[in-house]
Amino acid sequence: MVQLSLPPGAPSLADGVVEAVRSGITAGELRPDDTYSVYQLADLLGVSRSPVREALLRLAEAGLVRIDRNRGFQVLTPQAHDVEEIIDIRLALEPAAARRAAEHATDAERAGIRVSFEAMEGATGDEERFWVADHALHDRLMRAGGNQRAAAIIERLRATTALLGPRTTTAGRTLPEICDEHAPIVTAILSRRGAAAERAMRHHLEHTGQLLVRTLQPAPCEDAAAIAVRPSSQAAHAMAPARPARAT
Length: 248
Prior knowledge:
The protein is mainly alpha-helical. The protein is 66% helix and 4% strand.
């Protein structure tokens, strides 16, 4: 019999269901070959069906479950190509945003980016605080780049990646190492060097993507090149947003 429970302190019932399902997958309580119903999951967790449906939609978007409207849902094993797609989109948006932030951000926006980075530096011993600061840094950087829709897209993609599990957040790096990867991006933005900011952001995303793919789908040495995240793609260049007009 499946054993699941809501974690304490979840921000919402849907968040609690997401964590419960993730924990169930990790513990082997929820198996890829079995089908589970919304009603069954709601009964196990002692919640109504609405937060269960919301949680399953989020998990399906992350590639952790497949929903069959007539039968229920099945657990999926996250695949490397899921991360490749996410990183390709981020590469289309974030390096260009970093350049625009360096070239056009206001003094207040630069100050916010500096504060978020300093918060990251001060939280390398506290994972929860670190990811809050990391999220704030990327969000401020995107918004300083002048494209609010792109900022919303990146926020959603980062949330999707986080749902894949704890391994994908650090991807084999320590928190100080992740912080160090952000330092050249922030330094370039604060010193108004657009090309350097774009280059540093691209390097950070490519490196992160390669590590995430390796975490999700280890491969023999001879196949490593085949699963590596592409540094760039035609799709990424095609999706790059045009530079918005800004008042000087």
